[in-house]
What we know:
Number of helices: 3
CATH topology: 2,3-Dihydroxybiphenyl 1,2-Dioxygenase, domain 1
CATH architecture: Roll
Shape: globular
Mean pLDDT: 94
Number of domains: 1
Number of strands: 8
Amino acid sequence: MMGFELExxxxxxxxxxxLDAAAAWYEAVLGxxxxxxxxxxxxxxxxxxxxxxxxxxxxxxxxxxDSPVAKxxxxxxxxxxxxxxxxxxxxxxLEAVMASGSAVIDERPRPGSRGTTVAFLHPxxxxxxxxxxxEEQPAxxx
Length: 142
């Protein structure tokens, strides 16, 4: 056992060029509405979250040309960007991943959207998938 476990899928992130058009499509075609919208300036993105049971679909669009999502869209086009897994302690989970020798993007947890704490794992050791560890903060700590 690694010292932590994945509790559930927090979100599936989809990179899009037009956030409003993507949100409108989800509502018109799938009947799913955006429940949260936020700009994450340090990452150069804007997100629209669509609640699906206890998880989210995270629609992401770049807010500047040098953001990782802008580079992703340029290289690969629109589509699945990463998977976020909920953990109870992001710092402990990240330590365990680093202790295993797996590559990480974030060496320390950092603030995420919705008041969460997050850390990204490098896709090279995760079979080509960018993984985000997500710790939700207890109510009142946002």
